[in-house]
Amino acid sequence: MTMSNTGGRRKPPTIHDVAREAGVSRGTVSRVLNGGHYVSPAAAEAVNTAIRKTGYVVNRHARSLITGRSDSVGFLLTEPQERFFEDPNFNVLLRGCTQALAAHDIPLLLMLAGTDDERRRITRYITAGHVDGVLLVSSHSGDPVAEELRAAGVPLVACGKPIGLGSKVSYVAADDRDGARDMVRHLLALGRRRIGVVTGPLDTPGGVERLAGYREVLSEAGMEIDERLIVSGDYSRASGEAGAERLLARAPDVDAVFVASDLMAQGVLTALHRAGRRVPDDVAVGGFDDSPAAVAASPELTTIRQPWDRISAEMVRVLLAQIGGEDPAAVILPTELVKREST
Amino acid sequence: MTMSNTGGRRKPPTIHDVAREAGVSRGTVSRVLNGGHYVSPAAAEAVNTAIRKTGYVVNRHARSLITGRSDSVGFLLTEPQERFFEDPNFNVLLRGCTQALAAHDIPLLLMLAGTDDERRRITRYITAGHVDGVLLVSSHSGDPVAEELRAAGVPLVACGKPIGLGSKVSYVAADDRDGARDMVRHLLALGRRRIGVVTGPLDTPGGVERLAGYREVLSEAGMEIDERLIVSGDYSRASGEAGAERLLARAPDVDAVFVASDLMAQGVLTALHRAGRRVPDDVAVGGFDDSPAAVAASPELTTIRQPWDRISAEMVRVLLAQIGGEDPAAVILPTELVKREST
DNA sequence: CATGCTTCTGTGAGCGTTCACAGTAGAGAA
DNA sequence: TTCTCTACTGTGAACGCTCACAGAAGCATG
Questions:
Q1: Residues B77 and B148 in one domain
Q2: From the list A5, A129, A151, which residue is nearest B5 (CB)?
Q3: Does the pLDDT of residue B81 top 80, yes or no?
Q4: Domain count across chain B
């Protein structure tokens, strides 16, 4: 009966088959496929029914060969991969980008640049024009891949403000500084006056900005900044724990801690618990990221949510615009304070 | 100075440029590119230096146009996406597949079939031959996308035993039954005799197999199976909690619980704690998956680790073999018992 | 009636590669 | 020498599409 369903794949219909079926020329079919300008309604109709009837799908390879576009974009992760792949926000980002691109019928190629070998291969792949643009996840300062892509003129949109790439590269980021400001203001509003901070790594824009927000709000409140209340971490849980211990040793009267990531905040909670401080009664704790760690913690963490769904949508929007010839752009999106038990 | 670095992308060199540079014909360059058979060492050498000198990278579109292959594969997720995207094992799988493919210079296209619209688009994209094969993640029984792809003769490898797809589709899975057997044997070895089980959904192979392993071991030990000790869940944390409560009500003398997922096991721990049972003193608890939930739990969960890194590698291996013309194959990989505090 | 303009349509060329085929050169055998 | 065989090389055609161009048809304007 249905021989078509058994065994190998059949040769798909070409634009030629559609043209014959519709009684028009290749050119007309092509025009219908690409926007339908300069096509009579009758011809367009005939072509569309022929497309449905034959089950025609454009051969992207043939199209790309002549247009020079690939109609696909790469999602490049040059971050040490373990860290980001375990971050649920990364999942949201990846999923969001894939879906936003799918709406434009653009496939997403996942590229992981872990080893130097992979880095080389991917760079060559991209610069050879096999993708039209790249969505970049990399907080690596002075990332050689990113630099090379930028130099080659590949449309590029980074997630988060990239370091050392000049102003020529687009990026989409959450407003770290403003998020930090919100949190510190929140702690002040609760009546806390000895507010400590466990920063992120200060060689990343995120780390710097979040600390800057902390300083700004305290200054604006007319408070003098006590450098003993500032300790730095590296976003890891362990560094949060160590940071809190240093903080307690240096300033035992601390009554609130703004922690630059939820994971570190978990460590801070552990250290505070061990030191016999009650949260939030003795010390209020604010995190950053609104990761699952925030709700898994006890008490559940008050934190700053980054709009990851909007970030992915904006990254795709900016990238497509740039592929379309527009200039690089920076987009900063607002964060949101999520109040829970820890403050 | 370096005009090449400013502005747009330059036109990349073609096989023609390489041929001219090397003083040979297109055909010879092509032969070097594809295995180098029937090429004199001198010519091969000349071509290779010309490739390096010109920075030539093959134009995959042109190649695909004539070979009919795309030299790319799709990673298709038809699962309700939230669930899998939050599963860290999914990350390991996705990363593993990407890297295994990268070793063969094959890009991975991420495809998420959430809505019906996406489903249609993706099906058409794949059956049109835009990917050579598909890595499928779907526990959805009777998945229409998978069925359509199978019918169209698209090489397909599923992660986990697929339901209702006949025997014609390859899959790679962990040995659920054997994993369950290991865990129950472990509980028996600890001297437990009233071993309950919270199963996974029994319309999935995983759920069925894990329960089967439980039954087998108890039967082999000459014990009679008490159906009151068997309650079913749906892998969610909440269902674990509810399951444990039912178990305690029906068989208060239970001294161990084998739970078919770590997430459910967390729920079980919560319920046991609330009921005043100590773990593992009063009741030993064994999970399944070795997800981060296992170490996040207190006490840390004894669990069954699925070899996700090997699963991804095998999926890619089987898919490439199938693309190469081999018959579909099923691969079952062994699991590993990870002992922690809960038993 | 010619002229121009707009809207529409068909045609040939070409994108960069692989593949089949025809050919060349050199070695060894008759 | 001549033939055959092997190892290698070059060439034209094709893959399926888009693009530029030429031309046709319709309509208003001079």
A1: yes
A2: A151
A3: no
A4: 3
